[in-house]
Amino acid sequence: MKNLKIGIVIFVLIAFLASFAAVAQEKQEKLTLGALLIMSGPLASFGETEYNAVNLAKEHLNEAGGPQGKELVVDLVDSTTNPSNLRDATKKLVNVKKVPAIVGPNIRSDVVVSITAPNHVVTISPTNTPEWVTRLDDDDYNFRTTVSDKIQGQILGKLAWERGFKTASSIYVNDPYGGPLSNIACDTFEELGGECMAEVAYNPGKASYKMELLMASRGNPDVLIMPAYVEDGITIIREAIAGEYFDQFLFTDGMFAQKIADETGDVLNDMYGTSPGTSESPSYNLYHEAFRGKYGHEPKAGFSEQAYDAAIVIGLAMAASDPDAYEEDPGKAIRDNLRSVANPPGEKVTAGAESIKKALELIEAGEDINYEGAAGSVDFDENGDVISGILIWKIEDGKIKTVRTEIPERE
Amino acid sequence: MIGPLVNGIILGSIITLGAIGVTLVADILNFFNFAHGAIFTLGAYFTYLYLNILPDMGSMFSLSFGGSMLIAIVLSMASTSVVVLFFDKIIFRTLRQRDASSLFLALTSLGLVFVMKATISMIWGPQVHYYGSIQSAIKFPLGIRVKPDEFFIVAASLILVLVTYLFLKYTRLGKAMRATSDNVVLAQASGVGTEKIVTWTWIMSASLAALGGTLYGIEVQIRPTMGWSFLIPMFVAVIVGGVGSFGGALVGGMIIGISEELITSLLQDMFLKLNIRVVMSAYKPAIAFVLIIFVLLVRPHGIFGRKGG
Amino acid sequence: MLSYIASYLVMASIYGIIALALNFQWGFSGLMNFGIGASYMLGAYSAALLSSAPTAEHLGGFGVPFPLDLVGAAIIPGFIAFLIGFPALKLKGGPFAIATLAIHEIIYLIVHNEMWLTNGVWGIRDISRPLYSQMPQQYDFFYLLIAGGMLIGFYFFFQKAVRSPWGRVIRGIKVDEDMALMSGKYAWSYKMQSFVLGSAIAGIAGGLFVHYTGFVSPTNFTPLMATFIVWLMVMVGGSGNNRGVLVGTFFVWGVWTGSEFLTDFFPGSMETRAGFMRMFLMGIILLIVIITRPQGIFGKEKIIPKYLRSE
Amino acid sequence: MLLEIEKANKRFGGIQAVRDCSFGVEKGSITGLIGPNGAGKTTLFNLVTGFHPLDSGRVYFKGEDITELPPNEIFHKGLFRTFQIVRGYEDMTVLESLLIMPTQQLGENFWNIWTKGSKIEEQEKKFTKKAIEVLEFFEMADRKEELARNLPGGEKKLLDLGRMMMADPELVLLDEPGAGVPPSLQQKVNNYIKRISDDKNVTFFVVEHDMNVIMNLCDPIIVVVEGTNLTSGSPEEIKSNQEVIEAYLGEEERV
Fold first, then answer.
1. What dotted CATH number matches A30-146+281-377?
2. D121-139: average pLDDT
3. In this predicted structure, what is the pLDDT of residue B186?
4. Domain covering D3-90+166-253 assigned CATH 3.40.640.10 in the classification
5. What is the pLDDT of residues D42-52, one digit of tens each?
């Protein structure tokens, strides 16, 4: 009787797992690209926008005939902001869906790379900005299309000074993103002559941030610098305004989403922020045109350009791979061809359907190309990092607008 | 120090609304309802739902909302009660008939938490919602800042607590409910059926939770996880006050609310002076626990606990 | 696919150890410990800090080698459980559960916020993975031997413990503490022993976890992932029945892992909410089990004294 | 006097449950304790066995002050009690609930399980043998693998007595041995109690609500009313005592 029960349970379990696995493995004749993005939690608005961008890239590549003449499909997995879920999601993409390359993750490349790199899966993160990502032991399988936080922090500190503030405080999200960004911004601000009165960490998901505001507002600083995430950031802004703790704010890329203006009324007009990216290149314009054409609106959050670029360079690298080498080890083939399609030398190609079509034709003809992305030139260095600009944005009439781009000097 | 005190009173009155529900269920149905936080959340979301359906009636006085909010609150209390009664019918009644232990019932309610939380997240999404626009605080002397809404929150809580108290004290049903918690035989003698008492226990518990959730939504915001973070303060309020004691829930709720705000800000000041970098507000939930240990060591059955041994 | 199944089995084995520990505390000793996840977390961090290389970022750098740091992963949560036991064991039933849940939250907060100690939300990276460099591709299979072996070991450990006179007293206290007192058994001491032992073994599971993933951060230990799911495993399998709990563990973790694939059936717009579907599924499984089979799939085990059988 | 209670007082909230109560239990006797509902009989048991602390007063066992001791230590002095509602380890088998009783079991120490296996085995065999003998004494040997919860009411009481025999106490406090036992079996239970008292020289102290049971079983009998002892004497004396009759009649009027 007991053995029968065990048998039934195990049988049901295996049937359950097997049926899912069967569904998961049907895509054969197509090339797959994994998307490991945050689709829920405090960063969901970013994940959603980036997923749109990846789909746009897929469309552009497929309209041009697809890499290697095959159709490209995207497998999306919600990474969530929770590292254990992220691990599971990555394992699913790597071991079950067997994707050769992934656009993502949004955060915590360290967790993902320990699974992807040994399995020869390329990861290109559009968003993971911390400095330590550079130093990960990744066998050169990890790349990113966004710049390191160090540069953004400096530009942010400079922006605070330029806007005429003499004193500032920051409330930053207590995680690998917020802390360093706040530190660098404050250091730069003080080097220029300002005074950083307090740096307060906050934990995401809390109901109220009055205590943090109380601490940050001691001594009445001119402005609140917020390396924060959208959902909690809105709460902080609302409480800051309601309690009259602050009326001037400076934001970072984590707050670069239309939602912050929508949820707070017109109090945020004329507030500034920074984000990795460029706004002045032809590639940027072509991308935004295509995005509007497909979705009917501007990207609702930052980093969609970086996500688009990541998907495109993966597609181009697939196309540039030797079919036999690709057959044998697709991840390695993509990794070995990424720099040849993204870096100089070669003929420059930009974002947008027509340009991508041209790029595939050039690859077909055996020409060398150099992809100039929507978020910057996408030239990977030996660590898989890129150097590109920092965008300055502001809120105007309740809408997020880009103002200009600061291009950092190469060190 | 007065700022945190004011915040503490606001928080305390919301905790009290929840704690009364927890104590009623713990006393009459004899288990700790872990799903109470989820009921709290559900109430807030129902209000949000009705607020979007109802026409905007403008705002009253200097509050950030108006008549439609009051109607939405009443509808939300009713809807939440219906949902909770539904769960009682399909789950808790079966268990009662089976004479399940109180720990088993508590565990069941924990399962219910996840079903409810997941359902709320699936319907309304994981993101934060707001009832209305930002409201500026009125400045009082001594640097006190109070939003008009906050007067409403405290007043509404106090009125509902009072109404509940009068109900339990003077109506036949209320007396029967109190009797049930003391002695089942006595309750049967009062002529009110047990199932009726159970039904009304749930209705009162759910309605107060729904109001609490809504008031919290007015004060801060609504999100699927809001109830869970309130669960421990509510339970601690009940244990500190004494399980089954109405006054205990009120006093316990206020003690938790005020001490969380006051102690964290006092300690924060101290650490700032000593130049130690500790983010005290992160440890706010810990205050409730330290309090529970302290009270239980001094008075094992809570401040108003009735059971002698 | 095979290595995916292996990784499923590794995690199920790790959860199986926690489930056995919780089953010992709840199913055999009657302690409604809602803080079992805290012990798991403490064990994970103890192992991580003990074994990690020296760093300026957080405490640690003791460089304790793999099997030895698991001892630390047992001792530290065990000792903390011992300290917590003094106030918490004054409580019974629901209030005990609430107190342990509150302790869980506090320990979570400390791990989450104290950078100097645990590196806070950053988590700890590069935790040594025994023999990883020899077989990066087959690592899941190798680790399955370690984790599965430990699980089997602990299964027999608990089977023997609950059948011993010591376990008999523990079970007796669960049924009726007053009665046990009046049988001359110092109930408090036995409850403390059970609390500490269960916590220590959940800690070992934590240690196994970090050496498998090579990485640990506080978010691995939310109430859902560290406590509730373990309770579900115990309830589904049948509390008070070690074999049932093992089956419950593999079943629940199987559904949890398998339901990851549910997203494939959702249209794009709903995909983002599929995560909640899993949470919903977990809750529903618990409710269905409670209503249809309150004793779990296997139900409580009837323990016949050993020396009777031989006669 | 084997057990002596001296001026015991206990208050619960506003109710004085036990008031200046003093009496003693003679060695070798089967002493009864009767009184109307709510007279404080069970409370007295709880005070004697350390479940509730006394407000004031003293309890002596074999001349030794045991007032402040916890229940488990009182047990080790040789005092055993049963509970009003039989709660005998319901989820355990009959045999196990007997095996739990013996004191000084090596295997009750966690470390010994792993280090002193053979000695524990020896002990277990010894205790199992003793348990079977006890079950045979009660003619229940065929029930040994049954769960205690599945036993009929009368056999549960016998199991209680059996557990007592495993422990070899000097004084046994029986809380309502008649409760939940069908009248037909009551005489059987009483006979066992008498036999144990005679054979093993065990002193019994019995609380009982049912007058018939106690008149049959006990001598002397102590009467408690409203927390204080009214009188004591042989069953015949008690039966004819006017105060006792009034106390019981008064109770009936109230209900």
1. 3.40.50.2300
2. 90
3. 55
4. no
5. 888 888 888 88
CB contact under 8 A, C220 and A83: yes
ipTM (interface pTM): 0.83
- Give the per-residue pLDDT at C263: 64
What are the chain C neighbours of B113 within 8 Å (beta carbons)? 283
Please indicate whether, in this complex, the C-beta atoms of D12 and B309 are within 8 angstroms of each other: yes
Q: Is the CB of residue C112 less than 8 Å away from at least one CB of chain D?
A: no
In a domain, B22, yes or no: yes
Q: Is C160 on the interface with D (CB under 8 A)?
A: yes
Query: Helices in chain C by DSSP H: which ranges?
Result: 2-22, 36-51, 66-88, 93-113, 115-118, 139-163, 165-175, 177-181, 187-213, 229-237, 242-258, 268-271, 274-292, 306-309
How near does any CA of chain A get to the CA of B45, in Å?
A: 15
- Domain boundary assignment for chain A: 30-146+281-377, 150-276+390-406
Instruction: Suggest the residue from D9, D12, D45, D54 to mutate for an interface test with chain B (most B CBs closer than 10 A).
Output: D12
Q: Is B106–C94 a contact, with Cβ atoms under 8 angstroms apart? A: yes
Whole domain around residue B132: which residue ranges? Answer: 2-224
pLDDT confidence bin for A6, thresholds 50/70/90: low
Contact partners for chain B, using 3 or more CB pairs closer than 8 A, are A, C, D
| pLDDT single digits (tens) A117-156 | 888 999 999 988 888 788 888 889 999 988 888 888 989 9
Please report whether residue B289 resides in a domain: no
> What's the pLDDT tens digit per position in B133-171?
777 778 787 777 788 899 999 999 999 999 999 998 898
Residue D168 pLDDT exceeds 80: yes
Confidence bin at D251 (pLDDT 50/70/90): low
Q: What is the pLDDT of residues A321-371, one digit of tens each?
A: 988 888 889 999 999 999 989 888 888 888 988 899 999 999 988 888 999
Among C26, C105, C263, C272, which would you mutate to test the B interface (most chain B Cβ atoms within 10 Å of its Cβ)? C105
User: C181 and D70: CB-CB below 8 Å?
Assistant: yes
Is the CB of D89 less than 8 angstroms away from the CB of C179?
Answer: yes
Would you call C99 an interface residue with chain B, using a CB distance cutoff of 8 Å? yes
| HEC secondary structure over chain B | CHHHHHHHHHHHHHHHHHHHHHHHHHHHHCCCCCCHHHHHHHHHHHHHHHHHHCCCCCCCCCCCCCHHHHHHHHHHHHHHHHHHHHHHHHHHHHHHHCCCCHHHHHHHHHHHHHHHHHHHHHHHCCCCECCCCCCCCEEEHHHEEECHHHHHHHHHHHHHHHHHHHHHHHCHHHHHHHHHHHCHHHHHHCCCCHHHHHHHHHHHHHHHHHHHHHHHHHHCCECCCHHHHHHHHHHHHHHHHCCCCHHHHHHHHHHHHHHHHHHHHHHHHHHHHCCCCCCHHHHHHHHHHHHHHHHHHHCCCCCCCCCCC
Are B134 and A264 a contacting pair at CB < 8 A?
yes
User: Which chain D residues contact residue B308 at CB under 8 A?
Assistant: 11-13
Global pTM value = 0.86
Are B107 and C90 within 8 A, CB to CB? no
By the 8 A CB rule, do B232 and B60 touch? Answer: no
Q: B with C: how many residue pairs have Cβ under 8 Å apart?
A: 120
Residues within 8 A of B (CB atoms), C 234-253 only: 235
Which whole number is the average pLDDT over B245-251? 89
Q: Which of A202, A210, A263 sits opposite B130 (nearest CB)?
A: A263
Taking 50 as the pLDDT cut, the residues of chain C under it are 310-311
Contacts of A175 in chain C (CB under 8 A): 121-122
Rounded mean pLDDT, D203-209: 88
**Is the domain A150-276+390-406 a CATH 3.40.50.2300 member?**
yes
